[in-house]
């Protein structure tokens, strides 16, 4: 075999080994976020807990002044620990709405299973200790209801569970 072919193969092996080490470090290397506390236990009930991350308070938007974000964080910290969610069930889905701000915090699609051999419904949105996927509502503009110093509005409802009968629109 010619000398240049050996060097080419050897060089390709070194480049491959280097890229393999970089990929290993990216997947299993020491992370800089190791100082963070362990995640809280999974909340099985459908109540919003104050220890869950509030995406509204952590959002950084150029439209909202920094002073409003700071006052909102203080307001959210003094909020009650548990809030009763509003449950809405139809023949297609079951969803839960947080009365503080009107965000949809959980949706279960009743006609779609979680797995192929599962009887559990597919969960599209959820807010628990593992992940936070919510459909936020509200207007954050200068005169929007979410821009007040008291924080997000607290909506009041007559009851906390609503059910729409099958085949009713």
Summarize the structure.
It is built from 3 helices and 8 strands, in the order H-E-H-H-E-E-E-E-E-E-E. It is an alpha+beta fold and 169 residues long.
Detail the topology: elements first, then pairings.
Layout: H1 3-28, E1 48-49, H2 55-58, H3 66-77, E2 82-83, E3 86-89, E4 93-97, E5 104-113, E6 121-127, E7 132-133, E8 161-163
Parallel strand pairs: 3-8
Antiparallel strand pairs: 1-2, 3-4, 4-5, 5-6, 6-7
CATH architecture of the largest domain: Distorted Sandwich
Supply the CATH class of the largest domain: Mainly Beta
**Biggest beta sheet summary:** 6 strands, mixed
Strand order, largest beta sheet: 7-6-5-4-3-8
Number of domains: 2
Q: How many separate helices?
A: 3
Task: Describe this protein with a few key phrases.
about 170 residues, alpha+beta, Beta-galactosidase, Chain A, domain 5, 2 domains, six-stranded mixed beta sheet, two-stranded antiparallel ribbon, 3 helices, about 25% helix, elongated, transmembrane helix, protein transport
Describe the structure.
One of its GO terms (biological process) is protein transport. It is a multi-pass membrane protein. Residues 86-168 form the Membrane insertase YidC N-terminal domain. InterPro entries: Membr_insert_YidC_N, YidC_periplasmic_sf. The chain is an alpha+beta fold and 169 residues long. It folds into two domains: 1-33; 49-163, Beta-galactosidase, Chain A, domain 5, CATH 2.70.98.90. It has helices at 3-28, 55-58, 66-77, and strands spanning 48-49, 82-83, 86-89, 93-97, 104-113, 121-127, 132-133, 161-163. The strands form two sheets. It has a six-stranded mixed sheet with strand order 7-6-5-4-3-8, with no helix packed on it. A two-stranded antiparallel ribbon has the order 1-2. 11% of the residues are buried.
